Amino acid sequence: MNKGEEQTNQDSKWQDRIWVLSVAGQAGLFIAFPVILGFVVGLLLDRQFNTVILFSVLLAMAGFGGGVYIVYRWVQTTVKKHLADRQKED
Predict the structure, then answer these.
(1) Please, which residues have CB within 8 angstroms of residue 49's CB and are 6 or more apart in sequence?
(2) Domain boundary assignment for the chain
C-alpha cells in the first residue's frame, strides 16, 4: 500500500467515525424531544386535573417509547442508505 492509498483509507475511517457520532447525536435528540414534549403536556394536564405527577410520568414514558421507535425506524433507513452509498463508491 502506498502513502496515497494509506491516507485515503485513514480519511475514510475518520469519515465513518464522524458519521457514527452524528447518527448517535441525532438519535439522542430524537428520543429527548418526545420525552420532553410528553412531560410538558403531562404537567399541563396535571395542573388542569389537579393530579400529582400522573400524566407527566405517563406521557414522558410514552414519549420515550415513541422516541425509541422513531430512532429504530430512522436508523434502519439511514444505515441502509449509507451502506448503499459506500457500495457505490467501491
Answers:
(1) 55
(2) 27-89
